[in-house]
Amino acid sequence: MSKNSISRWGYAVIGVIVLLFAGLVYAWSVLSTPIAQEFPEWTKAQLSLTFTITMILFCIGCLAGGLMAKKINPKINIWLSGVLFLAGFFIAAQTGSLAVLYLGFGILGGFASGLAYNAVMSTVMAWFPDKSGLMSGILLMGFGIGSFIIGKVYQAFTPETIGGWRVSFKIFAVILLVVMFGCGFFFRKPGTDFKPPEQKAEKVVKAQVEGIEAAPGMMMKRPAFWMYYLWAILLSMAGLALVSQASGIAVEVAPQVMPGTVATAVGLISVMNGVGRVFFGMLFDKKGYKVTMLLDMAVFIAAALVLLGAVRSASFPMVCLGFVIGGFAYGCVTPTNSALIRTFYGSKNYPMNFSVINTNLIIASFGSTIAGSLYDASGSYVSTIFMLILVTVLGFVCFLGIRRP
Asked: What is the pTM of this model?
């Protein structure tokens, strides 16, 4: 193994660590439970809006990172995200109103997460032009599984007294700052002389070698880009609706189950999300976008049907199975975003193009708010499950219009 090959895998490890912690914003379903207990007058939709704001600011932070990618060292973005995480979680810990919660966790925490996300993806992916799908999956596995690990730690160490979550938020603030500053020192873009290990001709995947070099403006003039953009919105909306309402679904099905068990069940989404990101990333490299996207939609429908059966039969094991399948399906969207944009529209403008495609989350993030509103209106999470089916079917319609440049 060459020196470059060893070095680039080292950068990948550091990238996974950063995304592991930056991904804690996805633990909102668990983090918000004690907040809801302290403020029972806040509706499900109002609390869900926190997650929506987080996702919107995540996209804006990612976009800002893409704009700065060619101007500043990526480690600066990592360090800045650490400072913003510190401020955001300390502000959120002082929450006495929704506005303060939205500012701390939603705006500052979301922006910090997006900034770190783009810095890691654009830097580490530059070391792996030969493994776009696989590396996207590995990095994003860290981003997804972080919410499971942090959710379990949060459940285990957060005091059960009213307001005990505030202490945990302050501890998270300090840990995030330390991790971002420590890992930031190790970030470096590959030099102009860097060449990835050569691949045997028969292993070069057709999906990796075809495409065009396109700046964001040119990319956005292509109808296929917008069909994929809509597909990503719809499938992300399904995943985010499931993530944000998972605790509620589990409690509706089995109200007698202990909170720690519910947190474990919800955490299955994050674990399988991580597994799905690696699996679908590898599948993209081997089979291309069509097989990857079709399989993902089929798995999403299967998850919705299992969850519907769980609610109808009040079966907690079926809920867990639905979370496993749904988390696996949601794992497809982000590595496909990364790999498709890189293989369709080239590596030269990847940091900015990647930021553009990730803005789909601004719209998709309303999936959690819509799901919360559907519950407020119906009093049941069956409405969320039917929402998953509807957006997946619409996603299939968009898929039919996607063509390689």
From this structure: 0.73
